[in-house]
Amino acid sequence: MKKYLKNIFGKITFNSAKETFSIFEINIIYNNAKKISSVLNADNYKKIKGDLLVYGYKWELTIEEYSYSISQDFFEVFTEEIENDEITIKFIVHKTDNKIVIFDQKIFEEFLKSIKLNSILSIFNDKGFPIYFFESFSDDSFTNNQIAYNKSVEEIKELLDLNNKVSLSNQCNFRNYSEFFFNPEFFYLKGNNNETLLQIYLSKLSLLYCLIFIFNSTEINEDEIILFISGDRSYKYILNFKDLDIKFLPIYYKIYEWIYSEESKKEDKIGIVRNVLTSYLKENSIEINVGVFDSILSCNQIYIKGNISKYFEVRNKITEQIEQTVNKVNQSMYTFSNNFQKSIFVFISFYLSVFIFRIINKSNLGNIFNKETSLLGLGLITISVIFLIFSRIVVYLEKSRIKERYNNIKQRYEDVLIKNDIQKILREDKEYKKEIELLDNRICLYTWLWGITLLIFVVVLFLASDYLDLSLFLIDCKK
User: Looking at the DSSP assignment, which residues form a beta bridge with residue 227?
Assistant: First the structure.
């Protein structure tokens, strides 16, 4: 806007300015006062009038010290003689229509920060819908603007009609409802349009009305919002409007839409929502995560079938059954390691028995194993290899059975819980996958240990046998 005025008047100094939803006022000091009559000519008058006519705005330009004034309805040439080098010009634009142009973003945002929540809502009440906001005002033209909040006439008609249909639940007590009769959809911006303070405030208003349409009791006192919700637990919050965090809007808006999507069921749904919400909320924050909505849907499925309190019972039960299934992974690991230990114990017992027998009979200890004991040792090694292969197969089958059981448990609960909620309870199968990975690593480790141990026993058997010749075996291998 400042550049626009400079294009008309030339060298000027900006003294003061203010901007609200209803008015834009700027005081400028014209530094070349003696040329004012040539600047305030018919061509410049037509330009200003034509540009503001696009929005149906009324305006006036005054020089109070010379009692000079022009407006959209009246123009006269400035004929007074100027004695000073500077004069003060006041330019006022009255935003009389529902198209609100933001002429100076910084000044307007200072105004927004200065007014209270109840004042903002009163302004919207006075303006009425549909309201069109034009932000990022072009300095060169009134007509080249970026629309920040613009619902089509058809959308507004649907919204006004929807507002008549979407009545506040009988279980909600909004003490200012007769004064500020809105719903969350009036202020909801589609997409991530939260770049300017105005857009952020609109999103905060949408979040506020989501809370109003969900919580038991709400009261607005200037910037203060008093909230109360009762369900599985009860919480009371005293929040400041300007401190509302719009990152919570998507999930609360989603919950609001779900509650009021069916007029005949909203009273039942709001009871479900409050029970679930209060199990997630904390005393000092209205923060919730996206998983809450999945819990609400699951809780609703259970409620349809009977009793809402069973939701938490079902959650505990699925967790318990999954834990039992995961524990079976550890049992498989225990069985495999136990088989390994038994195999090693058999060999150690066999070798010690033969050695002790030799000592008792005072036999030559040069070669501990004769033909019979050597063959018996080879047989035990062969059996141990077969036992190793068998144990691996058993672990594989057991792992497949555990995986099937795990998936069956999840599928069994899909009748009462939605898939997303089940995945949230099971933390995306992280615990199960971690246990299976640990099982695979340990089985691999024990298999290598088993194999190396068997190799050592074979070498010892050949070295201590008068029947088996390890050197001949090595020569055959080289050939």
Answer: 218, 237
Strand spans (E) along 64-185: 68-71, 87-94, 99-101, 132-135, 146-149, 173-174
- The token pair that represents 469 in the structure block: 């010749």
Name the pLDDT band for 415 (thresholds 50, 70, 90): low
Instruction: Map residue 226 onto helix, strand or coil.
Output: strand
In the numeric block, which tokens belong to residue 306? Answer: 């009977």
Buried/exposed 321-348: b ≥16 CB within 10 Å, e otherwise? bbeebbebbeebbeebbebbeebbeebe
76 Cβ contact partners less than 8 Å away, ≥ 6 residues apart: 70
Q: Count CB neighbours of 409 within 10 A.
A: 17
**CA atoms of 244 and 225, how far apart (whole Å):** 10
The pTM (predicted TM-score) of the whole model is 0.64
- The tens digit of pLDDT for each residue in 155-170 reads 444 444 445 457 888 8
Tokens of 451: 């194999």
Between β-strands 58-63 and 68-71, what pairing exists: parallel, antiparallel or unpaired?
Answer: antiparallel
Collapse the DSSP code of 217 into the 3-class scheme (helix H, G, I; strand E, B; otherwise coil) and give the result.
strand
Mean pLDDT of 235-247: 94
Residues 40-43: contacts with CB under 8 Å, at least 24 apart: 40/70, 40/77, 40/78, 41/77, 42/75, 42/77
| Domain extent listing, the chain | 2-106, 151-289, 323-478
* Distance separating alpha carbons of residues 439 and 333, to the nearest angstrom: 6
Q: Is the dihedral of CA 290, 295, 298, 299 positive or negative?
A: negative
99: left (phi > 0), else alpha (psi -120 to 50), else beta?
A: beta
